[in-house]
């Protein structure tokens, strides 16, 4: 029997993650049945669960994959840019700002955090990635003289994470997004260092 290359396994895993992302976003965690996951990925249940132990492991890997992508954006451009990308995707300006159906996945993560204690414990260990990236970016901005220095970096990190969660909730409720770009401009301005003229 021929041996499968690591590249092939990685490609198949990516195919499963990309296909399941749209399935979870469209149907939610409970509605993403194995049959629907098969249709979304174009693979059999055996192929899917060869790479992931069960549906929860698949969803957690997907959410972790999105968190990694977000952390990469944070490292280069900051958490406010993640929010801008999310808003662009939600309003149809940039359909794949962070990856297909990122908002749906993020909403499902938020819902499961509220309702599933075991998921909350598993996710807590993984969500530190985004917090660490945000903190590191803010420290770099402070060292560069661009970040206000009258507020602790941990407080600014918590502030930006709260704004992100508020944005996700706002979009989840289908509330108008007309002024949200200006709100994000204000958020970004609120953490900048203001030099005297």
Describe the structure.
With 197 residues, the protein is mainly α. It has helices at residues 6-31, 34-41, 45-51, 55-77, 79-90, 102-115, 117-143, 153-172, 180-191. Residues 95-100 have low confidence and may be disordered.
* Structural class designation: mainly alpha
How much strand content do the residues show? under 5%
Per DSSP E runs of 2 or more residues, the count of β-strands stands at 0
Low-confidence stretches: 95-100
- How far the N terminus sits from the C terminus, by CA atoms, comes to 73 Å
Major beta sheet summary: none
Count every helix, treating DSSP H or I runs of 4 or more residues as helices. 9
Series of H and E elements: HHHHHHHHH
* Helix-residue proportion: over 70%
Q: Name the shape in a single word.
A: globular
Radius of gyration: 19 Å
Q: Please state the average pLDDT score.
A: 86
